[in-house]
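Known limitations

Structure tokens in this collection are predictions and should be treated as such. Users comparing against experimental data should check residue numbering before alignment. To illustrate the layout, the record for Molybdopterin-dependent oxidoreductase is reproduced below. The input appears on top and the generated tokens appear beneath it.
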Amino acid sequence: MTGNPQDSTPIRLEVNGEAREALVPSRLLLVDYLRQELRLTGTHTGCDDARCGACTVRVDGAPVKSCMMLARQADGRAVETVEALGTADRLSVLQRAFRRRHGLQCGYCTPGMLNSAQALLESNSEPDEAGVRAALVGNLCRCTGYQNIVASVLDAAAELRGDAPPVADESRPATDGDKWVGRSTERVQDTRLLTGQGRYVADLADADTLHAAILRSPHAHARIRRIDTSAARAMPGVVQVLTGAEAAEFSHPLPPTIDIGMRMNKSHAIAVDKVRYHGEPVAAVAAIDPYIAEDALAKIVVDYEVLEPVVDIDQALADDAPRLYEDWPDNRCLEYQFSDGPLDQAFAEAAHTVVAEIPHHRYTAVPMEGRVALAHYWSSEGRLTLRLSTQNPHQCRTLLAQTLDLPEARIEVICKDVGGGFGLKLQVDGEVIPCLLSMRTGRPVLWAETREENLLSGIHARDYRLTMEGAFDNDGRILGLRTHLLGNCGCDGTNRAAGAGQLLVGAFYFPGNYKVPAYSADVVGVVSNKAPYGAYRGYGKDIANHGIERFMNIAARQLGMDANELRRRNLVQPDEFPYEILTGPIYDSGDYPELLAMAEAGVDLAAFRKRQAEARAAGRYLGVGFAMMLEPAGGAVPNSIFNAYETATVRMMPQGDFLLLTGMQDIGQGVETTLAQVVADEFGVTPDRINVVFGDTHGVPYGLGAWSSRGASFGVSAAVEAARKLARRMRAIGARMMECDTDAVTLRDGAVQRTDGAASLAFRDLGNAVSLWPGPHGIVPEGEEPNLEATATWTNPVVRWVPNDAGSLSIYATHPSGCFAVIVEVDTETGATRVDRVYAAHDCGTVINPTIVNGQLHGGCVQGLGAVLGEELRYDEQGHLLNKGFWDYLIPQAPDVPNIEIGHLVCPSPNTPLGTKGMGEGGPVGIPAAVMNAVEDALSPLDVQLSELPLSPERVLAAIDAARSQGAPS
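Generated tokens:
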């Protein structure tokens, strides 16, 4: 591989205790030698610059980034990968601790984490928390928030010393007898992920697989005059080169993902005649290895006519702005207005009016595994098999069928382990390219997105400007609210990704947790020469929450009130649920005042104020900030791929165990485990009797996948209803076999049991009787299906797609809620902000698995901290993205964040069978405003007012200087 066979080096090394000899190309990386030559696929790649640590192995006992080490540099050395730590039936102490403590979610970063942690434990038997966090610098995690990882390493150290590991301090509701819902069971997928046996897409490529590389535009806006691919085609090892014009001969433009009043553009997976953002694909190569594929890109010559770019909102709105799409009259892709209630009267009678400008910067999800696609087109059968790292396999199949003009039934999308998603893996654009290459070559083609590609071309989020105007009475109660939202949707918010819709969600939910009797929204979305616009763990609810929670703090300062007192006076009250707001959403259940009280108690607000005063006297600036959180969950968006149902099939096998077939997708959030728990309760068995099957469009019902925290609403509800249908049939069959009434039997302990104890029929005996001998005739009662399988489709019971005269709709099934409290310290000399404490009071209805719920909140809160304190996609005036790797796109590391404390309030939803609501997005939705409010509180003696994000040290110092220039105390 990698080109010239003469440029190779013989090496001898030891890998996981086994002697190895090889002749390796001089530029072959150690990570590729391990993965491709030895098939040790537990070692992953997640960046281009040795920053993420997913590739960490131990070389002579020390942790090493194998993506930065040549294979020939390992000559004469001992290399250990995650596969050496333990096996499925004999996990190491460290692996057991990770499984027990929920130290992993998607699992993609886990092998690297384990190797770094193992090296620490071998050198230090008594590490403290700070030492563990320091040892994990260079190992990035996007899912867990590091808290459970650190706890896992400390537990393992204690066990290795012979000390009893500390008991997990989990907040968990009381369980109902022997019910599994409410229990913190260990996840079923963790053993394979901890032992390097994950099934991520790139792990599944075989020796015949071609590797795709994509040539991307260096310009944000340009016409493609000519592309010369002749030199690339002539290179040995290059099998196919494809331009946009060639691809358009046998494929269609990308179909829309959402169409609810937006202006629709035409776009292709590979640009045909014009590029509209820095990084847009202009050609693609398939070669026998990734090194040759990358070499070939350098041989392609593109003649561009560079055009003036449109980068920001003001440029896009200018009358003389260049048009991204020549057939559009301007650059507006979305316009929406809503108004209801006596708004003019509210402002006319207001004792106080408050106006606030609330901008928000652009950032992105950066899951540790980028987008990956392995396509194989079987020309003899006209069949496409596509292995994807995606959140929604079925919708991907539908969109690909439309793009590739293939019968959908001949496309199979398979998706097993996914290295994080967070909304970024809902798009289908780059994934088309390996399909096109495979259709041309007839061979499997792998495309694995690099980190630079991910930052350039993976969907971006936020990037908006909000104006809020509020009318208040003398008591601080809201009389009316006007909102004006301008959003930068990049080059596309409808086809490559569905981001334009999140501006509408923001407009619908700006009232937040508060009673707003009169309200209006004015929304404009524009296109620009930035990357496509989509979801990142929020989809508009983040826009709404940040806006209203910043506004409440700004209003409180202008009204001379305590911010939390202002919140209390306006919160929806517990006895008012279900509560319908003017825009149409129906809040199902909750206790918002109690959540606020929990958050204040969680940080001991009175004691903090005393400590804050003492710190200020000593010249230190501490602050506390609060933000209520509303997380509309389980979206049901009309005229989009984000629709209103989920289907599940439950099947009892003749031997008495069960299959659950679900359209949900596990992306690290624990679907395999939680769905087994809820179904186990319906049959009175243990969860290990339930095999959850997902991620294969030929094997499971058409479902909508993982987004909008819909697992606990749609996914769980469909599974429960299917299980209940089958359980009822099993009781009927069992009662007939035991010659009693159906009401006289129950399902318990793997059997149909008479409630009077007179008889019992094991599930295995029932299964054999129906499926084998004597068979269903005479066994299954008349009127019952003669099988042991049931399917149910669950839909949102409160959805309303027909708008009233004002334009209101109801598209979310449930409304999880919370209140976040954050304590910070700000260094006024450097501008640096340190987060000392985070407390989350949270209500997601019935809690299925407390450990999994807490883990989701930990990770989400840390993503929120990263967003507000440092993550930013920076563009120059020419539309070039400036930060294209983890050295300058900075996500939090283990030492950067505190432990997250969580308090649960359980207000079950009346809209779901188990009272579940969803909870995957609350952290990123609520944390940013809480941090901004905390920093302003810390700097209140200086009269600092914050606006621009993120709160980098430079921006904080600039805000301090601006306040001092206005006469604030020094």
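For this record: The first strand starts at residue 8 and ends at 15. Residues 8-84 form a domain with the Ubiquitin-like (UB roll) fold (CATH 3.10.20.30). Please report discrepancies through the issue tracker.
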